[in-house]
C-alpha cells in the first residue's frame, strides 16, 4: 500500500530556549510578508536554521547562489526567528502549515508569533503603491493587543481576516500561544515594497529592532521586477478551487 501523505514536517536545527519571537511571512497581498521577511533576514544577517516540508507542497525547489533549498525557510539568531515562504500557501497546505507552526512555536516557548502581511486597499491602489502605508494589527490575548499598540499599528477593531494568517491565529489561539498579525494597506495584484517598509517600521517599535529601511526604499523598483513571477504564482494559487485569498476586511 502507498504510504500516507506527509502533512507537514518542520526541521529546525537551531538552539532551543530564549523564548524567541517568531515572525512569519508568506506570499499574500502585495507580497508584503515575503518582502519584509526577506529584508529582515538580509539586514539582520540571520542564519538559516531549518525548513518546512510537506507532500502537499508544490514540486518546487528554489536556488540561491547555485544551492538548491526548500522554499519554506527558517532563519534565526538570538531570540529572533523568521519563517519565510517563497511559494504560495493556500487551501489545505495553508491550514496544515499554520497548524504545525503554531504547535512548533509553542514547543519553543515562544514569547510571541508575529504574522506580517498586506491588506488590499483602494487608497493604496489610487497612489499606485507610492510611499508608506497604514498598518493595522490584531491580537489573540491582552498581551498581544498591548503589543499591537506598542508597534504603532492602528487597532483592527471589527472585521475579518482570511487566508493563511487567519488559520495561523486560529491555531495559535487553540494552543494558547500569544500571537499578533500586522497588516499594511497594500496593492492587491502587484508587489508592494512600500507597504513592507511600513511593516518593518512597526516591527522596529514592537521588537526594539534598528533595521534601516532606506535601502528597501531605494531598491523598490528592482524588488518589484524580481518578485513579479511570485506575485503571479500567488494570484493563480488563490484562484484555485478551495483557496481563500489572504487579506482583511475591516471598518
Gross morphology = globular
CATH architecture: 3-Layer(aba) Sandwich
Q: Report the CATH C-level class.
A: Alpha Beta
Give the helix tally.
Answer: 9
Characterise the protein shown here:
The strands form three sheets. This protein has a nine-stranded mixed beta sheet with strand order 1-3-6-7-2-8-12-9-10, with helices on both faces. The chain has a two-stranded antiparallel sheet with strand order 4-5. A two-stranded antiparallel sheet has the order 11-13. Strand 4 and strand 5 form a beta hairpin. With about 250 residues, it is an alpha/beta fold. The N and C termini lie far apart (about 50 Å). The protein has nine helices and 13 strands. Helix 1 (about 30-45) crosses helix 6 (about 195-205) and helix 2 (about 90-105) runs parallel beside helix 5 (about 165-175). The chain is globular.
How would you describe this structure in keywords?
single chain; 251 residues; alpha/beta; Rossmann fold; 9-stranded mixed beta sheet; two-stranded antiparallel ribbon; 13 strands
Topology:
Elements: E1 9-12, E2 21-25, H1 32-44, E3 47-53, E4 62-64, E5 67-69, E6 72-77, E7 80-85, H2 91-107, E8 112-120, H3 122-127, E9 135-139, H4 142-150, E10 154-155, E11 159-162, H5 164-174, E12 179-186, H6 193-207, H7 214-218, H8 220-226, H9 228-238, E13 247-250
Helix pairs in contact: 1-6, 2-5
What's this entry about, in short?
This protein is α/β, with parallel strands linked by helices and 251 residues long. It has helices spanning 32-44, 91-107, 122-127, 142-150, 164-174, 193-207, 214-218, 220-226, 228-238; strands at 9-12, 21-25, 47-53, 62-64, 67-69, 72-77, 80-85, 112-120, 135-139, 154-155, 159-162, 179-186, 247-250. It is globular, with a radius of gyration of 17 Å.
